[in-house]
Design brief:
130 residues; Ubiquitin-like (UB roll); disordered N terminus
Amino acid sequence: MNVRWDAVVDRKAGMKDPRHVAVPCLASPQDSGCIRADVQLFGVLAALSPERRIQLELPPGATIADLLAALGERLGEAILVHVLDPAGKKHRHCRLYVDGYPVEDVNEPVHAKATPTQVEIILLIAPEGG
């Protein structure tokens, strides 16, 4: 990955309902267009979670917000508090990458593909710009 963790600035973010629930995908990913995601947690988030790498399945048309909601359901609200503010916007000190590209808008769609979508989430500490 050729993106510096501190190179992304929160210019736009938000979702209408930060507490909405992601609907699980009930059919096999190959048949239904379900989205498979491999989420990796770094820094403080990794310390808060019993799992550093989480595999999720999301329904077709899911967004980053849906992915985060599914992550919160699996790992608890403590994770989401560090990633999203009360309005559902991504915190400035949180960096989120999807397949190596920085993502700021949690309403962006996650696309189904043959291999799992790679999602990396890190919280920057003060010396790193957090």
